[in-house]
């Protein structure tokens, strides 16, 4: 069964077209565009006209890929920014006009469940797992082994924290302290709600995690096969985070594994990742390239 899954978050919109056979996905197309849909939402409460147009342009391209692939089922899930925005109806109308389907503006808990499903299928490391999905506007925390047992979504993400606190280039000590205080409070609330400290394996999802993994492994270029299910120590994450936060955006852009649309927010994302590891007590994290997109695809195939 060939399906098309779209994940539209605060920072990026991503497409997976895949053939699903039993519990296996075979990628036909897996692509991403950074559209920064949630730009300014934390401050204004609205999706900007420019952000909606960037997203529409990406979806037009995705619609053509879906048509050419002859996918039999399409599902689009929209997450943090479209949950928070007062003009979310404009976003829904735009998506329906381009794709011919309504976007599902899912809750943080639904997002967490889909991310968990995508992350743990095929994972050799032992459960129970603490899975965190570090997005632009929010981070989801999920615990479980074969299925989700507990989940919570917190409004800490790389875009939201950058817009709220990190205004200098590179950020100042005071800005970093304010960010860490904000993030630590949210992470502690999450870990009180889900038993993440008792999990045997920590799994991290999304672009911040995979980019930090690429930097920790000192890859000469972004290589998803080498990153997927690779293990990164807490010491390595701490080192990479410090290096990123000491750089200007221009210096980050020069890193060979850095996506241009991530360079201005990766510092905040790495800081969130480091705090999660510190507060949960895990000495290492497994980076996964499979996440909510894969969960959406599996869900489509299951009907």
From TrEMBL:
Every Ppx/GppA phosphatase N-terminal domain range: 16-298
Protein origin, superkingdom: Bacteria
Gene Ontology MF, one: pyrophosphatase activity
Annotated coiled-coil segments of the chain: none
CDD domains: ASKHA_NBD_MtPPX2-like
Cross-referenced InterPro entries: ATPase_NBD, GppA/Ppx_hydrolase, Ppx_GppA_N
Name the record gives this protein: Exopolyphosphatase
Organism field: Actinoplanes awajinensis subsp. mycoplanecinus
